[in-house]
Structure formats: structure tokens, C-alpha cells
Design a protein that fits this description.
The chain is mostly beta strands. Helices cover 9% and strands 33% of the residues. Helix 2 links the parallel strand 12 and strand 13. The radius of gyration is 18 Å and the shape is globular.
Length: 271
């Protein structure tokens, strides 16, 4: 692949919000984002969602998907599985930021397993047939939905954007600090901030929603759960928006789903 032609270099899903990623070579788009991306979420005793902001050790929870089971592996290598498509659990009302949603509880066994690890009472919940959450912000001109992701179905970052950031840091950081779904290579740094519409080689059209403001999760080493000051300190020195928020990467959506997105696909800039 010629370096000056943008192409999809990496694809990731995060089945459980704020937990570890699964790297994929190809993935189907569905109603809420990439298939199985952020379809589960951990909530506390008050039915409030938990992320690495409050609990950095969530980064060490490793999900895997096989035979219609979501399997969770903890740092001590203990595992527990739940059915992917079962909706027999209690219906719980919770919120994802300002959006009130109905979700299905995944049962006492997995709740006990995760509660012991998190050292507090937590439940695992999942998206089911009662779930509905529309994207509420950005510049897209069509209605679309999102699962448990913060804001949009897709987060896209250019490898060259990370390369530029790393050239400013004393110690380079990996892409996983920013938890993207799609990593683009080729083209130029920060191109994802200026594109407005993309078409993949397999004819998936992606629409720009907004730039992504960054939080303290970017300062957490995803392999150790230890936090520091970077990269937020350096990003704050050169990459803020007009409201003073630190930015890195951009949010995207699509009007039609069901296509596959694959590593190696070239990306054409429509707007």
C-alpha cells in the first residue's frame, strides 16, 4: 500500500466499555457501531456506569468472543463467561452520560466474579432489544444510534497523528491509550480532523461527526493500569479546540450498516 494513500491499518472493538480491546482483521458494521463493540458495560450499586476514569484496573479485564459466549479473563487468569444473545436477565434502567437507557442484567455469577475484582458491588449489563440511544451531537445530518460508546459509533485516528504526538513526548506511547476503532495510515497527520466524508474500498461511507475531546483515560497505561501526566500534558500545549478542550482523533458514523470494514482497505476522501 502506497504510504500517501490513506488505508485502514488496524481495527479494534471493545466489547465491554472501558475494558481491553480485541484486534480484528475484518468486522461488520451494525446498528450501534462495529459488531460487538461496547455491547456490555459494568455498573455500580447505584446503576451508574463505571470506566477507567474511576477504576483504572478495568483496562486489565480481557474480553474474548467465541461460540456465542463472551468470556472475561482477569489478570490472575481466572475466567467467566456469559451468553452473548440471552435476554432473560432483569431489565435495569441506567444512563450513559445524559442518555437514559434500558439494559439487561447478565446475572449474579458474573456480577460476583467482577465485584471481587473491582472490590465493590458491580453488575455486568448488556444491550438488548429494549435499548435505544440516538447520537445527539456533532454535524451528521441523519439519525443514527450508538451503543455504550461515549458519543459516536466510531472513533478514528491516524497513525501519523500519533507519530507526530510521539515526536513531542520523551517516552512514546502506543495507540491503545486512545482506544480507537479504526486506525488509518498514509496521508498526513491530523487529517481526520479535516475530512468530512470517507468511502472505504468496500463502499462503506463514513461521515464525520466531531473531533474527540480527551480525558484522563489517555494517561493510563493499558497494560499496567498505572497513570501518569502524559500525553494530556503535551497535547494540552498544542491541540486544544476553541473551548479549551484537549483533542485527539475524531468521531464518525454511517447511515447504512451491514457492510464489512477490513484492514488493508484503501480510503477515499469524498469531502
Amino acid at each position: 500500500m502506497t504510504m500517501n494513500i490513506p488505508y485502514i491499518a488496524e481495527l479494534y472493538i471493545y466489547p465491554i466499555k472501558s475494558c481491553a480491546a480485541i484486534s480484528l482483521q475484518s468486522v461488520k458494521t451494525d446498528k450501534y457501531g462495529l459488531q460487538h463493540d461496547r455491547q456490555w458495560m459494568i455498573i455500580n450499586k447505584n446503576n451508574e456506569f463505571l470506566t477507567q476514569r474511576e477504576l483504572p484496573i478495568l483496562s486489565l479485564i480481557i474480553p474474548s468472543i467465541k461460540d456465542e459466549q463472551l468470556t472475561i479473563t482477569l489478570p490472575d487468569t481466572s475466567t467467566q463467561s456469559v451468553p452473548m444473545y440471552e435476554e432473560s436477565g432483569t431489565i435495569i434502567k441506567t444512563q450513559v452520560w445524559d442518555d437514559e437507557v434500558l439494559v439487561h442484567d447478565c446475572g449474579d455469577e458474573i456480577a460476583s466474579f467482577l465485584s471481587e475484582y473491582c472490590q465493590q458491588n458491580v453488575r455486568l449489563v448488556k444491550i438488548g432489544s429494549l435499548f435505544s440511544r440516538e447520537v445527539q451531537s456533532g454535524i451528521i445530518d441523519f439519525t443514527t444510534e450508538v451503543g455504550f460508546a461515549d458519543s459516536y459509533p466510531l472513533l478514528l485516528i491516524s497513525q501519523l497523528t500519533l507519530d507526530d504526538l510521539n515526536s513531542r513526548l520523551l517516552s512514546p506511547i502506543p495507540m491503545n491509550r486512545f482506544r480507537p476503532n479504526i486506525v488509518i495510515n498514509g496521508g498526513s497527520a491530523y487529517q481526520e480532523d479535516h475530512w468530512r466524508k470517507l468511502r472505504t474500498e468496500n463502499n462503506t461511507v463514513l461521515h464525520f461527526g466531531k473531533r474527540c475531546s480527551r480525558c484522563v483515560i489517555t494517561t493510563i497505561d493499558q497494560s499496567t493500569a498505572i497513570s501518569g501526566k502524559e500525553p494530556l500534558k503535551t497535547l494540552a500545549s498544542y491541540n486544544r479546540d476553541h473551548r479549551g478542550r484537549v483533542m485527539f482523533g475524531s468521531y464518525w458514523a454511517y447511515a447504512d450498516y451491514g457492510n464489512y470494514i477490513s484492514v488493508g482497505e484503501s480510503v477515499s476522501v469524498i469531502e
